[in-house]
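U., I forgot to send this yesterday:
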Amino acid sequence: MHWDPNNEDIYAGLTGLKLPFDEFDLGNGIVISKTYAHVFGHYMAAFKQAPKGQHHPGPWKSIGGGIAFDIWAEIYLPRETQLFKEIDRLNTTWLITALIRIKTCPFVKMPLISNMKFKNIPESQIEANFHALETESNNLFYNLIKPYEYKQDDFNWIKNNLITVGNLFEKNHKYELALLSLDRAATENRYSLGLMILWGALEQIFFPDDKQELSYRTTLIIATYLKPKGSERLTLFKKLRKLYGARSKAAHGNPTEDSEEFKQTYFILKEVFIKMTCENKIPTTIDFEKQLLVE
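Result:
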């Protein structure tokens, strides 16, 4: 049965997220809570052609592989909740999931949505509807970060900043690119590809007006934006110069495939994104000049 998630209640199942509480109210009727479902799709093979309009006849054999994941949490978005002008309700669940990835653990995923609360599905007399979404298995952060301790403060931040994030995402291309880059870089197959995505966003935000000494000026401006004048800014500037060098190698066909370079660049862009969100402002060239020359 076809169903339109934008016109019904949405229950978005999340993997990789074991909540420290039973449920959390994100406001506007949106609730994230504990649940459980095991989803699996194993590869099978049949050895005779299917008659027209029928299934392949047996015997069927398991050939190994496929996908399987555990859903530990769900986001409930009521059908009457529409928070943004351009971001529809289905993409609102993605936006919340993206912020959970940024503020908690980058390999949380939203592989499945339903129109029914997961725990009610087994006993329901009404057939539940489903959509499969983020089912890819690759994530560059696997084995790069330790098991994450989920904190309520992270969810408080998401609750307090969700509307700001959505509004900035709709109105500003640089902010939109920063969020999309943080959300998608880890799903690439190589560290160098993820690194280029992250630096693409950083360049858009901090790109100087002229292209002379691009690497020097871009990294200097980022360091100025994130750190006060002094030794911390100098240390970050040197770190950024090294990371930008890794980005240049990746762009010109000589990638290092260094996981630490990817990880450090991710957290730099994350820090920039969070600061822009908290200030509800995208920095401009005038802001950078003021920080460099006046403050």
